[in-house]
Design goal:
Largest sheet: 5 strands, mixed
Number of helices: 9
Main location: periplasm
Function: Required for disulfide bond formation in some periplasmic proteins. Acts by transferring its disulfide bond to other proteins and is reduced in the process.
CATH class of the largest domain: Alpha Beta
Shape: globular
Subcellular location: Periplasm
Strand content: 15-25%
Radius of gyration: 19 Å
Structural class: alpha+beta
Keywords: Disulfide bond, Periplasm, Redox-active center, Signal
Signal peptide: 1-22
Strand order of the largest sheet: 7-9-8-10-11
Number of domains: 2
Length: 238
């Protein structure tokens, strides 16, 4: 069975090194994960004795120390007044760390009075992505800058993928992205584009559609979020 099917069957967590022993803890046997096609990026002891929190190229999973049992689902700390989603904390850390590695690959629309920077996975063929982009000034007016990454909704094929490749190969990527979202023609150029990497990263984050907004905290919001509502979430540290 393919890893993605296994994750789905056990309520997998697509969140977030070379293939081999996990970097953070050499006591975990990762051979079975690797045999299934997972690339293990890191592993740490979880809050459950004998269970490891493992970040792979395809998401966050939990594995017993002998590496023989894969556990899907979210862990909650229920010792306080309110349950704390421990898994979501790990996922948000992963998103922040991963995005920091590719900040130079984003298309950056900066607000004059920048207070917050969000990262948006986008597809120029997506209606809600176009709506977000057409309202970009509303985000800028409340101090929100936008960094775009490409995430073709139909996968690594089709019109969205071809447009995203052309955008990231353009000399003026910001102008090309705006043009594509306004149905203007793009110059078809070839280059060593990062769109495939962006798609893999978004899939790892758990994206199922566009736009997908990642906040500075690492929290991810699916769909179009109006500027004022988004500002409220950012100001509340969400």
């Amino acid at each position: 069975m393919k890893p993605m099917l296994v994750i789905a069957s056990v309520i997998g967590l697509l969140a977030c090194s070379p293939q081999g022993t996990a970097q953070n803890d050499a006591n975990l046997n990762t051979a079975h994960l690797e045999r299934m096609g997972f690339v293990v990026e890191s592993a740490d002891e979880s809050s459950i004795a004998g269970v490891y929190e493992v970040i792979t190229d395809q998401g966050l999973v939990y594995v017993t120390a002998d590496g023989k049992t894969l556990i899907g689902g979210r862990l909650y700390d229920i010792t306080g007044d309110e349950p704390v989603n421990v898994s979501e904390v790990a996922i948000q850390d992963m998103r922040r760390n991963d995005l920091a590695q590719i900040v130079d690959e984003t298309i950056y629309y900066k607000a004059d009075n920048e207070d917050f920077v969000i990262t948006v996975f986008t597809d120029p063929t997506c209606g809600y992505c176009r709506q977000l982009h057409s309202n970009l000034q509303q985000y800028h007016d409340v101090g929100i800058s936008v960094r775009y990454l490409g995430w073709p909704r139909m996968g690594l094929q089709g019109e969205g993928y071809e447009q995203l490749k052309a955008i990231w190969c353009a000399d003026d990527k910001a102008a090309a992205l705006t043009a594509a979202k306004n149905d203007q023609p793009l110059s078809q150029r070839s280059c060593d584009h990062p769109v495939d990497r962006h798609f893999a990263l978004g899939s790892k984050f758990g994206i199922r559609g566009t736009p997908a907004i990642v906040l500075p905290s690492g929290e991810m919001l699916p769909g179009l979020v109006p500027a004022q509502r988004l500002l409220g979430q950012l100001e509340n540290g969400q």
